[in-house]
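User: Can you help me understand a structure? I only have the sequence.
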Amino acid sequence: MANYENVFIARQDISATQVDELIEAFSKIISDEGGKVALVENWGLRSLAYKIKKNRKGHYVMMNLDAPSAAVLEMERQMGINENVLRQLTIKVDAFAEGPSIMMRANTRDERPRRHTGGDDRPARDDRPRPSTVSNDAAKEVAAPTEGEKS
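Assistant: Let's start by predicting it. Here is the structure, written out as tokens:
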């Protein structure tokens, strides 16, 4: 059997329990065909990049599958028929990634990159070169016409 990673997006107006029912239905298809669902990650309700069938948001779910290709094809067919599934994508992988997916890790604060706060590699604010500026008085003198230019 091969390893597959499947991500599907369900409509925004269904409840979380209905999403769980979809996951169970698709998992049952895989297990009935002789496969197994190794991992299920519910990424929750997230914004879509563009509208899909008048939906701006969708429930994202990722499933790692260890199943024969016939089981995956049947699951994809059922996803295509189901009106609650907006999009789905299945890819074949050599091995499953260790630990949580990138989407689940993105929610943890500890692994986010920190903003640059002016470490040792940047000069202090007072040491930076300043752009040359003309004072306001000098600008008024340049802009004001002389007595000879007045008409």
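Now, to help you interpret it: Residues 16-32 form the longest helix (17 residues). The domain at 2-105 is CATH 3.30.70.60 (Alpha-Beta Plaits). Let me know which part you'd like to focus on.
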